[in-house]
Design a protein that fits this description.
There is one protein chain. The protein is built from 15 helices and 20 strands. By secondary structure, it is of the alpha+beta class. The strands form five sheets. It has an eight-stranded mixed β-sheet with strand order 1-2-3-5-18-9-20-7, covered by helices on one side. A four-stranded antiparallel β-sheet has the order 8-19-10-17. A four-stranded antiparallel β-sheet has the order 12-13-11-16, covered by helices on one side. A hairpin with a 6-residue loop joins strand 14 (298-300) and strand 15 (307-309). The longest helix is centred in the C-terminal third of the chain and has 20 residues, at 338-357. The chain is globular and about 70 Å long.
Length: 441
């Protein structure tokens, strides 16, 4: 019954009235006591936080350079001018990196992530100048899932990702589903705004495997196992019209013509063969192409030889982003934490609905063991908790540059403050960056 049919609302069934009353009470309680609501709904708990007392090695001056090094975490080093009131130019930084190649290489691989702070790197062109001082082995081809655009006036600079304002992207090692992923990535903080979040956290995936290895069953199961990746991309024309996959599936990121930069299917097959992807077209399903390939769950770091949790599971499984919204809600707390909590509940319900009509492999992306058996949900939850415990985040500053060893340290897009970032994965892969449209809160 509704007011439009002439019957009063008091005639509604008692069960419906009770449900509305309960919903109103829950909403009121959430607003009055948001910590209570988040605490009961979020699956992120205090034990999932990284240790508060991470060891730090202090600071030291780099001899004869005018630069000081500060250890922010066991896997993070910050380089900045000795005199913080006198910023050094991007050209100065580029020359320093060229003149101290051996020292910087050893230092970089010792940690895994380096922040350059306090240097006047004012735009994408200046950023590219610094990047080319680190490596000239850059490419322009990108076969990842995120939508990105190149920046005018540069050769290798691209947006980090162009998602809808509310989206978050779980932390990952860039293109870890490929045989030869990029060796390094660089990010550039081009613009800062918004009050909450947006830090682009860094995750030590070597530490993730160390955490997971504490569980003997997980260590034995995954140390030699292989993961199968399934990625679906609909045709561009179908993504411009309404369909369940293109309109409702958050894991359907972009069309295959944008992915391969061609509408010629033969060229698509040729690129798939080159990348060792098995590609199949489904004309009766939005003209989609399905790409599958198999990779190990872990790899050895090419320099240290240490084992790294090296896969794309945290991005390509449907519930991963839901967990991260719940984490954000717990970290923010208060009334502002209700926004990511609401997003988490929405996506949890959406994926639940879609799971009733689709198989796992029908989503925009999915993972399984190489024999097509599903990874247990309890293991996926353990992976997520290990990632959280090895993730560090802190506010960046304008014009910061972050260099990460993509064979060890991953990053993510985090709901909240816009952080227009320039981003370049380097060394033999697509270089990308600038004005990343970070999730807005």
């Amino acid at each position: 019954p509704s007011p439009s049919d002439g019957r009063p609302l008091s005639g509604m069934a008692p069960m419906a009235k009770s449900a509305l009353a309960a919903a109103a009470l829950a909403l009121g309680a959430s607003v009055l006591k948001p910590e209570w609501a988040i605490g009961h709904l979020s699956r992120f708990v205090d034990d999932d936080r990284p240790p508060a007392n991470l060891p730090r090695g202090g600071s030291y001056a780099v001899p004869g350079s005018g630069i000081v090094a500060n250890e922010g975490a066991p896997f993070l080093l910050m380089l900045s001018p000795e005199d913080p009131t006198k910023p050094l130019s991007g050209e100065f930084l580029a020359n320093f990196l060229k003149e101290n190649t051996d020292w910087f290489r050893d230092t970089f691989f010792k940690y895994g992530a380096v922040i350059f702070r306090g240097f006047e790197v004012l735009d994408a062109k200046s950023f590219e100048l610094v990047v080319l001082a680190i490596t000239k082995d850059l490419a322009t081809v990108y076969l990842g899932t995120s939508p990105r655009s190149s920046i005018n006036g540069t050769t290798y600079v691209h947006t980090a990702a162009e998602f809808k304002p509310h989206r978050t992207l779980p932390t990952h090692l860039e293109m870890s589903f490929r045989d030869n992923p990029p060796r390094t990535q660089l990010f550039y903080a081009h613009q800062l705004d918004h009050q909450y979040g947006g830090e682009t956290p860094l995750t030590n995936f070597e530490g993730v495997w160390q955490t997971l290895s504490e569980d003997e069953r997980i260590r034995k199961t995954y140390s030699a196992a292989k993961v199968k990746y399934i990625r679906n991309n609909d045709a561009c024309e179908s993504m411009n019209t309404f369909s369940l996959s293109s309109s409702l599936d958050p894991l359907m990121q972009k069309c295959w013509q944008d992915m391969f930069k061609t509408s010629d299917r033969q060229k698509v097959f040729e690129k798939c063969k080159e990348e060792q992807f098995e590609c199949t077209f489904f004309d009766d399903w939005n003209g989609r192409v399905r790409m599958t390939n198999v990779q190990p769950f872990v790899r050895q770091h090419p320099v240290s030889g240490n084992t790294v949790w090296f896969n794309h599971i945290n991005v390509l499984t449907k519930n991963s982003m839901v967990y991260d919204y719940e984490r954000t809600a717990a970290l923010w707390g208060g009334i502002q934490g209700l926004w990511p909590m609401a997003l988490g509940l929405w996506y949890r319900a959406l994926f639940g609905f879609l799971s009733m009509i689709w198989n796992e492999n029908d989503f925009g992306s999915a993972v399984s063991f190489d024999d097509d058996s599903l990874i247990p949900e309890e293991d996926l939850r353990a992976f997520k908790r290990a990632v959280w415990k090895n993730t560090m985040q802190a506010p960046y500053q304008l014009h910061d540059i972050v260099l990460v060893d993509n064979m060890k340290v991953g990053s993510m897009e985090w709901l909240g403050k816009i952080f227009d970032e320039d981003y370049i994965p380097s060394v033999g892969t697509a270089a990308k960056c600038t004005r990343a449209r970070r999730a807005r809160g």
